[in-house]
Amino acid sequence: MDTLKEIYLSAGIEQDVYEFCNNIIKNLENRFKQIEEVAEFNQMKVLRAMQRQKVSTACFESTTGYGYDDLGRETLEAVYADVFGTEAALVRPQLTCGTHALTVALSAILRPGDELLSPVGKPYDTLEGVIGIKEDNPPGSLKEFGISYRQVDLKEDGSFDLEGVKAALNEKTKLVTIQRSKGYATRKTLSVERIGELISYIKSIKPDVICMVDNCYGEFVETKEPTQYGADLCVGSLIKNPGGGLAPIGGYIAGKEELIDLCAYRLTAPGLGKEVGATLGVNQSFFQGFFLAPSVTAGALKGAVFAANIYEKLGFSVVPDSTESRHDIIQAVTLGSAEAVVAFCQGIQAASPVDSHVQPEPYAMPGYHSDVIMAAGAFVQGSSIELSADGPIEPPYAVYFQGGLTWHHARYGITMSLQYMKNANLVKIL
C-alpha cells in the first residue's frame, strides 16, 4: 500500500511542498485539540436539542403544496431555536441563501421613514444593492421604499467607534445590523463576546432598537451564538456552516418570536406566515446536516488555521494570523497580485472532488463591484462550507479561503494552492 506521502506525490504535490506543509501540521496539535473540544461541546448541544424536541423518523416525511402541518419543518425550527437559545426560528428551503435571508429580515422589520445602522462598516457586497448604497441600485432596494441607511466604520485598530455609534443613533434608527464575518475586507471577524459588548452599549443608549447579526460563516465556531449575547435576530445560510454540507439549499432566521413572525409574513404572505411552505423532501438533509455541522465546521477551522500558518510563514499578510483565536471559518490571505489570486484559486479547484478538471477564471458576478474568481468544486452549488476560495480582482488582491467537509480534504486543497503558487513562480518554499 502507498504511504500517505506517495499518495500526495501521485496527486500532483511535489516533495518540497509536501514536506513544508507536513512540518507545519506537526506544530498544530494543540490548536487542533482546542478546535475538537469546541466541536464536541457543540455536538452535544445539537444532540440534546434534537432529543428535547423529539426528532423522529416522521420528521423526514415530505410535504407538497401549501405544506400545512409539516411536522419536520416545525420540529427543525424548534431545534434551531433550542440551539440558538431563542424563542423561535424560521428555517426554510424557500430562503435561497444568506443574502436572501438577510433581505427578508430587513424588509420584514423596517418601514418607510426608518433608518438602518451598521456600526461595523460597510456590509458584504451583495447587501449593498439590497440597502440601496450602490452607484447603480437595482429596483426594490430599501432606499426605494424610503428606508435610510447610516454606517459607522471601525477604527483603524479594528475597535468599535463607540462615540461615532452614539452620534449615529437617532429617533429613526429602527434596526442595527452587525456583520460577524469580514466579507471582502481584511478586518478581524467579530467574536460573539465583542458582538455582545457592542449590543449592550447600543441598547444602553436606545433600548428599543432591534439588533440583528449576520452570522454567516460563524455558526459553531464558538460554544455560543450571538443570540445568547443579546442579539434579537441571528441570520445565516444553510449552504454554509449549519447545513453541514448536506443541506441542498436554505437559510435560517432565529430570534424573538414577534420578529420571526414578521419575517415569516414577509417570506410568505401576511396572515399565512410560518403555516405554509412545503419542504419537498429536504427535511432529512436539513436535520442530518445540522447534526454533522459542529464536526464539519471543526474540519473547516483546522483548514483555516493550517492555511494561515503556511502563508504567514511564506511572508504573506493573513487575517486572522496564525496564533489568533477564531470566530468564523474564513481565512483571508493578501497575495498582492491578480496572478497570485488566480493561481491560489485554481489550486483549490484542482483539489476538488467535483469539477477538478475545470480551471476557474475571474468574471463579472451579479452584486459585486469588480471581477471575482471563485473556486468551488462542490457537491452543492455555491456551498462555502465545502472547500472553496474566492476573491475580487482588485487591490490589495486578497483571497478568501473557507470550508472543507473534512479536514483531510482541506489539507489537500491548501497544499495544492501552494503547489500552484509555486508552479507560477509566485512563492519560494523556505
Give the N-terminus to C-terminus distance in angstroms: 30 Å
CATH class category name of the largest domain: Alpha Beta
How does the overall form come out from the CA principal axes?
A: globular
Assign the CATH topology of the largest domain. Aspartate Aminotransferase, domain 2
Number of helices: 12
List segments where confidence is low: pLDDT < 50 over at least 5 consecutive residues. none
Tell me how many strands there are. 12
Over the alpha carbons, how many angstroms does the gyration radius reach? 21 Å
**Name of the CATH superfamily of the largest domain:** Type I PLP-dependent aspartate aminotransferase-like (Major domain)
Order of helices and strands: HHHHEHEHEHEHEEEHHEEHEEEH
The quaternary structure here is single chain
Q: Determine the structural class based on helices, strands and strand pairing.
A: alpha/beta
As a percent range, the share of strand residues is 5-15%
Name the average pLDDT: 96
Please name the CATH architecture of the largest domain. Answer: 3-Layer(aba) Sandwich
Question: How would you sum up this structure, described in words?
Answer:
The mean pLDDT is 96. The chain folds into 2 domains: 4-42 and 295-423, Alpha-Beta Complex (Aspartate Aminotransferase, domain 1); 61-290, Type I PLP-dependent aspartate aminotransferase-like (Major domain) (Aspartate Aminotransferase, domain 2, 3-Layer(aba) Sandwich), CATH 3.40.640. The longest helix is centred in the last third of the chain and has 31 residues, at 283-313. The strands form 2 sheets. It has a 7-stranded mixed sheet with strand order 1-7-6-5-4-2-3, sandwiched between helices. Strands 8-9-12-11-10 form a 5-stranded antiparallel sheet, covered by helices on one side. Helix 3 (29-52) packs across helix 4 (71-84) and helix 10 (283-313) crosses helix 12. Helix content is 39%, strand content 13%. It is an alpha/beta fold and 430 residues long. The protein has helices at residues 4-10, 15-26, 29-52, 71-84, 98-109, 125-131, 162-168, 192-205, 257-267, 283-313, 338-350, 407-423, and strands spanning 88-92, 115-118, 148-151, 173-179, 210-214, 233-237, 251-255, 317-319, 331-334, 372-375, 388-392, 398-402. The protein is built from 12 helices and 12 strands. It is globular and about 65 Å long.
